[in-house]
Amino acid sequence: MKQVAIVGIQGVPAKYGGFETLVENIIGDNCSPEVCYTVFCSGKDYTKRLDTYKSAQLKYIPLFHANGVQSTPYDILSMLKCLRGYDAVVILGVSGCIFLPIFRLLYRKKIIVNIDGLEHKRAKWGKFTKWFLRTSEAMAVRFADVIVADNKGIQDYVMETYGKKSELIAYGGDHTQREVSEERQQEILNKYGVKANDYSISVCRIEPENNSHVLCDAFAKSGKNLVFVGNWNRSDYSRNLKKQYGSYRNIHLVDSVYDLDELYALRNQCECYIHGHSAGGTNPSLVEAMSFGKPIIAFDVVYNRETTENKAYYFKDCKELIKLLHEDKDGIPMKDIAQQRYTWKHIAMQYEALY
């Protein structure tokens, strides 16, 4: 049996986040009997500490939160706890990979790093943070045995920038499928003031790089109905958008939805899904939306085209989005792609093949 440690996430049970959802779904039922996972979790973020979860062993790192400025010491301390007893260590993200040259000297077995979505290129970071993340990424690529890229665009970047091959492993989306009665779904639609197949939905962090302002502007001008789920009180940017567009009767700005039945119903009954992300690799929310078989209108960048195999609908600005909103669209190709590429059983097997 392979003993595999996972570091770099807040922990499980997953509260939020793409990497947390990844770990949640490669352990448990999707895990083969030949692999035993140990997941390192933040003692600061979990007041209730479980010893095991979905057959995985859980270990807690004190002192640090998993995100923000504490993510680097948190990841490094997690690595130091992995020096003995593991056949492979999976590091999710590059925050702690500045330490990888030293860790490589101390740990002689397999190191696997998922470098995520080119964090150092995100506009929200300052110069020092961008430099740090870029350096950490370089250390990850140089000293890891295996690099995981979640998108063909990321895979091409790794080859072009570092001359290194990487393994292409995306995310699953089938965990979003649930059994919710039609009656219950109708109750949920009534709660949010929308009708089936008469609105679009978008789910994301409210940030400039997700083009949240473009979506709001397009729907304000088109008159079409939008349910926009996100963290509307997190920043000046999100609060200003809420102030500007919150009074539009056709635009429903909804704070993050944690009730899975509600999120399922809103996705399942929509006319189409709008994906405004312009940065990163394969975005989990896009993969999740594809599993519903609804038409998808995505911002026109290589990552979104790779994820949807050029079979979605794409916009570059407000004018193009408005035009697409008024055209007939087909979502069946999205579901076909999701069933072929984005199931968690398939993703779990791809990771296990690396160990």
Automatic annotation (TrEMBL):
Pfam families: DUF1972, Glycos_transf_1. Residues 191-312 form the Glycosyl transferase family domain. The chain crosses the membrane at residues 88-107. The keyword Transport does not apply. It comes from the Bacteria. The keyword Glycoprotein does not apply. GO terms for molecular function: glycosyltransferase activity. Keywords: Membrane, Transferase, Transmembrane, Transmembrane helix. Residues 1-174 form the DUF1972 domain. PANTHER family: GLYCOSYLTRANSFERASE WBBK-RELATED (PTHR46401). This is Rhamnosyltransferase. It comes from Bacteroides faecalis. The lineage of its organism: Bacteria, Pseudomonadati, Bacteroidota, Bacteroidia, Bacteroidales.
